[in-house]
Design brief:
Layout: E1 18-25, E2 34-40, H1 41-49, E3 53-61, E4 68-75, H2 77-86, E5 92-99, H3 104-121, E6 141-142, H4 148-151, E7 157-163, E8 167-174, E9 178-190, E10 193-204, E11 208-215, E12 218-222, E13 229-233, H5 239-254, E14 257-260, E15 263-266, H6 275-291
Parallel strand pairs: 1-3
Antiparallel strand pairs: 2-5, 3-4, 4-5, 6-7, 7-8, 9-10, 9-14, 10-11, 11-12, 12-13, 14-15
Helix pairs in contact: 1-2, 5-6
């Protein structure tokens, strides 16, 4: 792999070990998005020693040799360790592969990601399944990605445990479904008027806004489809916060667009509380705050 600028020594990034196998395909096999392939246990152990491998299987038509489909799997040491861990002592193991992309940028990302993560896998001791929820107190974990949307793109991500001296050990591989961002630097506005600077924001897969916690007294929960939301209010907050929350709810009942940072949705609130009641309560609380 070389960085942009040509195949010069100065642009060299690293080498990706690869293995290519062939397989005869029947006509129906070409419709499969994923395939399984049997790999010798000794080969897997050798790949593990070598720091991983990008494994290719080329499916070739049994009737037309010019018709083919390429499948791949990036087998980093963590992945190989997990495969061998399933049933120790087998002579062969089944691995799963998916269609190899045709777009250049997607192909580059596969090799770049392999090299990036390979550095953090080689020479590391791997543990069994780690239940992160019951992790030891004070432990921190890292998911590397170029953006938040990339974390929630539906593909598996490695989770690394942070160790002293800037060391990282891969402990799990998951498909993240939700991210909570505390104190997100976003403006929450209705029809362009900002009511809150900053909030706790939840993002779901496909970059759908999952919910917003504006303060202890006001939160918005969005359903999985992202087309409906429930507003939860409580008076268990400061007077100033409650006044701002009521002002926000009144504006929401009359507004057309709610925006949270780069997210914008049309509003069609069906508020159980009568707006006039909120307006009367707003006057009372503002007067009370003035007296206090």
């Amino acid at each position: 792999m070389y960085s942009y600028g040509g195949n010069k020594k100065a642009n060299f990034i690293g080498k990706c070990p690869i293995q290519v196998k062939g397989k005869t395909f029947a006509k129906k096999d070409f419709k499969s998005k994923t395939i399984s392939y049997s790999v010798d246990a000794y080969d897997l152990k050798n790949y593990l020693t070598d720091g991983g491998v990008i494994y290719f299987v080329v499916g070739i038509s049994g009737t037309n040799s010019e018709k083919y489909q390429i499948y791949f799997n990036s087998l980093l040491p963590f992945d190989i360790h997990r495969i061998l861990q399933k049933k120790d002592g087998q002579k062969t193991y089944s691995i799963h592969l998916e269609k190899f992309p045709k777009e250049c940028n997607q192909i580059e990302e596969i090799f770049q990601d392999f090299l990036f993560h390979r550095v953090h896998h080689i020479g590391k001791t791997f543990f069994g399944n780690v239940h992160l929820i019951h992790s030891d107190s004070g432990a921190t974990y890292t998911i590397w990605s170029k953006s938040l949307s990339e974390i929630l793109d539906g593909t598996p991500k490695y989770i690394y445990k942070n160790l002293p001296h800037n060391l990282f050990i891969p402990v799990e591989k998951i498909i993240p479904e939700k991210i909570n961002i505390a104190n997100a630097p976003v403006d929450v506005a209705i029809d362009g008027k900002v009511y809150f600077h900053g909030a706790e924001v939840s993002l779901m897969k496909k970059n759908i806004l999952g919910g917003i916690v504006l303060n202890k007294g006001l939160s918005i929960k969005v359903n999985k489809k992202g087309d409906n939301a429930t507003i939860k209010t409580t008076k268990k907050c400061t007077i100033s916060q409650y006044i701002k929350n009521v002002e926000f709810l009144i504006a929401l009942s009359e507004g057309h667009t709610l925006s949270v940072g780069n997210f914008a949705v049309g509003t069609n609130p069906q508020m159980k509380d009568d707006v006039s009641l909120l307006e009367r309560e707003l006057k009372i609380y503002k007067k009370y705050r003035t007296i206090v």
